[in-house]
Task: inverse folding
């Protein structure tokens, strides 16, 4: 077992206990900032569309969420200019 000291941190706001190793710890405002609201949806597409999405993910090194979000944002910005 490592000789690093472990301490529990209790955040100021309600939340989960945090395990901190030696130095540092959770800070208010730390971490990745959100880009929007997350909602779960189910999307039915033909297999060929999923294959194209998978290919874009692999080619660009992006997740399905990133690829589909980009597609939607492009469509919405273009349809708003009509």
Result:
């Amino acid at each position: 077992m490592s000789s690093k000291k472990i301490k529990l941190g209790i955040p100021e706001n309600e939340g989960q206990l945090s395990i901190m190793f030696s130095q540092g710890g959770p800070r208010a405002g730390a971490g990745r900032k959100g880009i929007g609201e997350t909602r779960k949806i189910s999307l039915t597409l033909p297999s060929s569309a999923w294959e194209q999405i998978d290919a874009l993910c692999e080619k660009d090194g992006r997740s399905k969420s990133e690829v589909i979000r980009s597609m939607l944002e492009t469509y919405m910005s273009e349809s708003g200019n009509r």
About this structure: Residues 20 and 65 are 31 Å apart (CA to CA).
